[in-house]
Design brief:
By secondary structure, the chain is mainly beta. 10% of the residues lie in helices and 38% in strands. It contains two helices and eleven strands, in the order ββββααβββββββ. Strands 1, 2, 3, 4, 5, 6, 7, 8, 9, 10 and 11 form an eleven-stranded mixed sheet that branches. The radius of gyration is 17 Å and the shape is globular. The chain starts with 9 loop residues before the first strand and ends in a 6-residue tail after the last strand.
Length: 202
């Protein structure tokens, strides 16, 4: 049911810490930083999120960096970024690590579908900056590729079920960045120009 057709080997770690000093989330959002393993390399990932109090919750991939410098990543940055977004919007991850509220039970046909509405927001344009020896990927502007799902709880399997309810669409401003990725910055606090990592909206 998820977006990626490629096989992803993802190791969800326990939440390491909630980092308020680096908070760059929109007003009203909570932030948490986790470590996720993608293709045998560890990444520190910052997530902005709002858990549903009525019908809608939102998950945003805020920023990420590879924290295992000796690990040679063989995937493209597009594959890595899409794998991270897929991982943090996976319903099992969301309800084990982010949100305490459980979605309503899935409807039994012929009853109409029901569940919480979840929005996943994946930044379209990024820049790279070297901070404390790590190269961070951070979003430029406020342009997102947005996917909407309906999430319900399957009492038989004991799992959350995610069903797409829209095709991915662009939201926000500053979506016209270059598809050419600049080299990694080599000087501390040096940053690059904005560039586009292809998403499901492309």
């Amino acid at each position: 049911m998820k977006k990626l057709a490629i096989i992803i080997v993802v190791l969800f770690s326990i939440i390491l810490f909630t980092n308020k000093t680096m908070a760059e989330c929109p007003e009203g959002f909570s932030e948490v930083t986790v470590t996720i393993q993608i293709n045998n390399c560890d990444y520190m990932v910052s997530i902005c999120y709002i858990c549903a109090v009525s019908t809608t919750q939102t998950i945003i991939l805020d920023k990420f960096t590879k924290i295992s410098p000796m690990c040679q990543q063989t995937w493209t940055i597009q594959q890595v970024e899409q794998a991270l977004f897929s991982a943090i919007t996976d319903p099992t991850f969301v309800y084990e690590n982010l949100c305490d509220n459980m979605p309503p039970p899935c409807a039994i046909p012929p009853n109409p579908p029901q569940g919480l509405e979840e929005w996943g927001k994946n930044p379209v344009c990024w820049f790279k900056v070297r901070e404390d020896g790590f190269v961070w990927f951070k979003p430029c502007e406020t342009c997102y590729c947005v996917t909407k799902w309906r999430v319900c709880w399957d009492p038989v399997d004991g799992t959350a079920v995610e069903t797409p309810i829209s095709v991915p669409f662009l939201e926000g401003e500053g979506c016209d960045c270059s598809f050419i990725e600049p080299p990694d910055p080599i000087i501390e606090q040096q940053s690059t120009s904005c560039f586009r990592i292809p998403s499901e909206c492309d």
